[in-house]
Each structure stands twice: as C-alpha cells, then as structure tokens.
Amino acid sequence: MAFPTFKPRTDSGPIAPPLSLVMAVRRLLRPLVRLLLSFSVQYPYLANLLKLTYVEVATREFPLDDRPQTDSRVSLLTGIHRQDVKRLRGEMMADASPPPVVSLGAQLVSRWLGEAVYQDAKGRPRPLPRQATQGGEASFERLVQTVNKDIRPRVVLDEWLRLGVAELDRQDRVVLRTEAFVPVHGVEEKLFYFGKVIHDHLAASEHNLTAGQPPMLDQCVYFDQLTEQSAEQLADYARSLAGEAMQALNRRALALQQADATKPDATHRTNFGLYFYRVDEAPIRKSLP
Fold first, then answer.
1. pLDDT value at position 162?
2. Contact in structure between 102 and 160 (CB atoms under 8 Å)
3. CB within 8 A of 174, min separation 6: which ones?
4. Any idea what DSSP says for residue 123?
5. Burial class (CB in 10 A: 0-12, 13-18, 19+), 105
6. Closest CA to 115 of 244, 258, 239
7. Which stretches does DSSP call E strand in the chain?
8. CA end-to-end span of the chain, whole Å?
9. pLDDT at residue 51 above 60?
10. Do the strands 128-129 and 166-168 form a parallel or antiparallel pair, or are they unpaired?
C-alpha cells in the first residue's frame, strides 16, 4: 500500500516524518474515525478541527524563549497559511468544563472508595443507606453533604440511577455499580471521560517518545491466538485486578490530596488508568485484500 509523502515544516525546512510514525498515527486514527462516523461527523469538520488544534498546540507549546509567538512562526511550524493562522488564533478557546454531574460525581466516588467509613471490612465500597437517619455518618445523604451542601442528595441519586452509576438493592441502599466513575448511560458524561482519559494516555506516550524525563508508566500485557472462552476469563481476571488497584491508589491519592490542601505548590495532577480490550480478529483477516 502506498502512503502519501508528508512534508511538515520546521525551522530548518520541510522534512518527511518516519514511516513508523505515519503507520502508528494511521492505526490510532482508525477507532477515532469510526467513533466520528458513528456520530455523523464528516471529514471536513475534522479537518477544520485539526487545523485549529495545530495552531493551538504550536502557539501554546512551541514558543520561543525570548520572543512572543507570531503568526509567521506558527505558520512555519504547522504549514498552515499565515492568514488562516491569524484567524484561528482568534478562535482559540479554553478546554470545556466537565458536565456538573461529572465534577461532583468524581469527588463523591473518590470519597466512597477512599474513606474507611464508607467501606466494608475488605476495603470495598459498601452499600449506603439513603438517609443519615438510617446510616448516620455512613449514608449516601452524608456522603453528598461532605462534598456539597447546596445540592440535595436525592437529586444526585436520581441522576446516578439514570446514568447507571448506582443502583438500589432490596434493602433500599445505594450501591456503587462501577469501581471508577464511568457512567453506563449518559453520552455527554462518557464523552468527557473519553477525552480526558485518551488525552492523558496519549500525552504520557508522547512524553516517552520525545525522551521526556522521567519516563512515565505506560505498559500493557498483549496476547493473541486465544479462544473466546480464554479471552472472557482474562477479561474477568483483569477486571478484578483493576478494581483492587484503583481502590488502593484512590485511598493513597485522597490521603495525599488532603495533606497537600494548604500547600502553595500543590499544582500537579495525576491520572492512573486501566483498560482491557478484546476483539475477534477472524473477520478482520477475512476483510483484508
């Protein structure tokens, strides 16, 4: 298969990227394009978005030490016409704020997973009585009030039930359905996490590929030539290991965050993620020419 000859520009002139980079980018773009097509996002829209993103990244992350970033320099770095650069720099915007249920929900789940009062003897998130009159400190009502006293716990519960984050058991207790706050329903909330998680994973990989120091954790365990039953066993096992790891790290992070609350240099953020992917490759092989 023939690949187009790419000639991005740098300060030293146009160069062709390594074929290995082109192949890697082409591969990671496939699921992204599949997602965009499923939302009826056509190529012209993505092309405009990509052009804007090139200008944003060049402006913010490739400045000169002693001079302000100019339209001409951004044009040189990106290969985008200077008039377009000037227009696009005026359209640059800050990242969108998370949906309200995500911001509040992430804090609630962090406490539910990280504080002993909300856990059972094995350190797992325990089912919580809905009201403080039933469960005292270890109740869903009290959990919500520790994070935000202006929002009624019932409103949060109804939204969580709608999104599939929580459910009610036979004793009318609130049960956390997911070990990390990823809604089962709610497209807006899912897309927020999609952007946040994939961005940070790509950023960690980019950091390592460009010799950033210290290297960031980026590992996987890859196996093929497995039966469907074996893949299912690995999925179940990975899910159990992931739950233990996420809960342990959440407890440690929450304790450190509380200890750092008054420190002026508490400006860093971290993100530890886990995923498991499985696919039957037989149909893919049959579709290849």
1. 85
2. no
3. 127, 128, 129, 130, 140, 157, 160, 166, 167, 168
4. S
5. buried
6. 258
7. 9-10, 13-14, 128-129, 166-168, 173-176
8. 11
9. yes
10. unpaired
The answer to whether 199 touches 127, Cβ cutoff 8 Å, is no
Degrees, nearest 5: CA angle 271-273-277? 155
Amino acid of residue 216: M
Q: In the block, which residue shows the tokens 């089912």?
A: 127
User: Which residues have C-beta within 8 Å of that of residue 5, sequence separation ≥ 6?
Assistant: 16
Stretch 65-80: mean pLDDT, rounded? 91
Strand partners, 128: 174
183 phi and psi angles, rounded to 5 deg: -60, 145
Residue 198: both structure tokens together: 């994939």
Q: 246 with 125: CB under 8 angstroms?
A: no
Query: How confident is the model over 262-279, as pLDDT tens digits?
Result: 999 999 999 999 999 999
* Site of tokens 């927020």: 192
Residues in the chain: 289
Residue at token pair 């993620």: 273
Torsion sign across C-alpha atoms 52, 215, 201, 34: positive
User: What is the residue whose two structure tokens read 């200008």?
Assistant: 55
> What is the distance between the alpha carbons of residues 103 and 151, in angstroms, rounded to a whole number?
13
Distance between CA atoms of residues 131 and 16, nearest Å? 63
pLDDT over 90 (residue 71): yes
DSSP 119: B
Q: Which residue has the higher pLDDT, 110 or 174?
A: 174
Give the least confident one: 89-98, 109-118, 125-134, 241-250: 89-98
CB distance 116 to 91 below 8 Å: no
How much is the average pLDDT of 122-129?
A: 88
Q: Which residues, listed in sequence order, are joined to residue 176 by a DSSP beta bridge?
A: 166
